[in-house]
Amino acid sequence: MINDILINESNIEIIDGDFIKSSDFIDIYNEGEVCNSDEQFIIFKSGENTLEIDYSLDVDFSVDESAGNYYTPATKDICVDDFDVTIKSFKFNDMDVDLSKDLNLFLEKLIKNKI
Q1: How many domains does the chain have?
Q2: How many whole angstroms from its chain centre is CA 45?
Q3: Mean pLDDT of each 10-residue bin along the chain, 115 residues long
């Protein structure tokens, strides 16, 4: 039953959550610190079914700095290189579901594509 719903990603929409959108990743950058968040959750709706996922998020950045000179100001460009999602728990219609390897990979991919 769960696989039939999860396979159709186009049928899944975000209805609630407390998570950082990928467009806001730059806002969480702190110089010299690892950028991660252990308390993220997202709730999807697929037809009459709800999928609630608790996860952690790790974001890798690269920074390109130029000291500038007399004619040009110093610059700092921050780029998001990659981000990883680690599933902590999953509920389907308010019921806890054990995570198989395939389900875990699918949920990680779903979150990466939707945020």
Answers
A1: 1
A2: 17
A3: 55 87 75 68 88 88 83 84 88 90 89 86
Alpha helices in 1-115 (DSSP H): 2-6, 101-114
Side-chain half-sphere exposure of 3, counting CA atoms within 13 A: 3
And the tokens for 95? 């019921």
* Phi, psi (deg, nearest 5) at residue 109: -65, -40
Contact 95/112 with Cβ under 8 angstroms?
no
Cβ neighbours of residue 100 closer than 8 Å, sequence gap 6 or more = none
On whether residue 57 sits in a domain, the answer given is: yes
Asked, for residue 69, whether it belongs to a domain, the answer is no
In a domain, 70, yes or no: no
pTM of the model: 0.73
Task: Look at phi and psi of residue 31 and say left if phi exceeds 0, alpha if psi is from -120 to 50, else beta.
Answer: beta
Bridge partners for 48 per DSSP: none
Q: Which residues have C-beta within 8 Å of that of residue 85, sequence separation ≥ 6?
A: 55, 56, 57, 108, 111, 112
User: Residue 8: which domain range?
Assistant: 2-30+38-64+75-114
Pairwise CA distance, residues 34 & 61, whole Å: 9
